């Protein structure tokens, strides 16, 4: 259709969706595969070749080899020399960022960025975020908050259009809100049950973590996010480590994870703190004072779960709410989570894998609004 000019002088053309290039199409699939293979490039490419063979993803004009070459040229792939002298391909930091962005789009796709992303308190006055609202001047208000235009309008209304009289009663200031920082710790269960029964639960958990990390760094830049994993023990990981996360032959030491999470948050200076815990199994492990491990995978061990309840209550005393996402729907596990949540006065969701990310974002937003506004 040719361009047409209407009477206003604006030009209108039919909208045409931009077609993805062969590289872009394959890259979308590659980001999914590299997440599932925990960053193993060779395995991801093998999967891509199998998909290509079955679904004819490439043509003679653009092959998988061409795609790999483009990954290198665009900075998504690097070659390293292994100790035995062989060359090995691995993804770069640029690819890691692309994977996090992809997770954000998948899980929080309806989200639109607005401003710097800081939430409000209900304290007004000497804040640092303009609201667009006005109120009467009060003693103690900073003079640089005065709205000269609105104050003069008031003076004209109160004293007549021809009057230049301006009194304290005419003055108005622009209302502001204080911005508040929030510190979050995300706990990810990497016990063996995350891949039991032929069900991949660790990949969606990783996606949620990557999406949350990307969300906070882009929309809430003043917030902090720490990530830890827990199995028999608990240890912190970096955001860049998330694509490579794998489960291990571990039991579930929930107490160790909570201990580390609270230790991290204890060092944060701001008062708004939160723990998210993603798990699919019951607590089944504790480290004893002598360094040995007490493990019991049969049912809910009273000794272990009581320690968990105590940790939840301790977090409540420190004003740290815990939101638990139980990726299981067994009644006896729900019973444990309910009591755990009651001890902390936090929140709990019982869910399958679908919708997990949306719930995490929803509660992240709600928690900020409840505790900060």
Automatic annotation (TrEMBL):
InterPro entries for this protein: vWFA_dom_sf
Source species of the chain: Lutibacter agarilyticus
Lineage of source species: Bacteria, Pseudomonadati, Bacteroidota, Flavobacteriia, Flavobacteriales
CDD domains reported for this sequence: vWFA
Protein name, as recorded: VWFA domain-containing protein
